[in-house]
What we know:
Strand content: 15-25%
Oligomer: single chain
Number of helices: 12
Structural class: alpha/beta
Number of strands: 21
Amino acid sequence: MPSTNLTLMWEPQLESMERSELESLQLQRLSETVQRAYHQVPHYRNLFEENAIAPDSIQSIQDIRKLPFTVKDHFRQNYPYGMFAVPMRDIVRIHSSSGTTGKPTVVGYTRRDLDTWSTLIARLLSASNVTADDVIQIAFGYGLFTGGFGLHYGAEKVGASVIPISSGNTQKQLMIMKDYLTTALICTPSYAMFLAEAMEQAGIRREDLRLRTGLFGGEPWTDQMRRQIEERFNIHATDNYGLSEVMGPGVACECLEKKGMHINEDHFYPEIIDPVSGEVLPLGEMGELVLTTLTREALPVIRYRTRDMTRLIPEPCACGRSFLRMEKPSGRSDDMLIIRGVNVFPTQIEEVLCSIEGCEPHYKLVVDRQGSLDVLEVLVEVNEHLFFDEMKKQNALVKRIQQEIRSMVGVSATVKLVEKKTLERFEGKSKRVVDKRIQHPAQG
């Protein structure tokens, strides 16, 4: 990998401010956000009144715990523009989620919101030492999805040359990466693995590229996958985090220390809660991430339950940023599989598979019910040498995978080895779980 230099900061005075100064700023901005939400968004006014909460009751940052949660259904109930706090004449951009389950989540931005967003992306890029000298290839989708455009304008803000290729068309991605001398790649980690596989198949060596860094997000991924991406491209791979409801990408980002993502706490207030009770957990404990926007004009969002499972890291980072860091999300509380009473996240299975030589980073989990028992089947691609090897070696590999899965997550699994390139590839977010229990419910 390229050598690591001192990480850059886009706004060093803000990104490294003293905690006492930051908390004072957070309280001021929280109070303004609560007032805006109460007076300009009927949903929040009704919610506050139902819970007997006065907007003036926020006197300390800890008072945020008095406020009710916001969940995705609230956006659907107020579809499309009911959560906006400004008139439509002040909305200059509209994005939305894919809407694969019910109505999509619609989000709006004022001109000031877009400027804030660009600044947050500039912070994200600077944390990976991306500068005006870089050529950035953005392989996220452009359109209603917040990824492509959000990253695009931030990249232009730092002065980099931007290639807005969007997602898909893998062969053209590789041609442009090589011919246009791309130095930074932005996409999902699963698509980065797909590109690496296609690159090797096309006979393109990593030495043929100018690529030096990759910024990946949009889905959970493991450190094992990070190491594979870094090795196959000879780059630094950093993680970033965001979600449409509170802004898009730019909520949190890794620096080159790669020890958690710095949350932009001057714009987003983070909490970790127990996903069942809703109680706020002590700093450092694992739970569900809750975010409150502190500077959004068009769409103030109070205590949004992200459903992402992570923990906050309070220890100082060597890069000099003072913001709290969040671990890579281990999964989502609503994507968590409960198999025979055990909580299982797909990323736990991925961690096992990526640690075993011969397994490819492409897999599928199939959960079904046989009688009254839940069963888990893991389909995993293996390299050609192993797939066509003698049955004894295949059986040994299957047994090892089963043992490692049982040790990691505490459940037994059936493992099926499949030939390389058998499983579906994804240009956007990966879909690795098929839960057939929905079609085959338990019989009472």
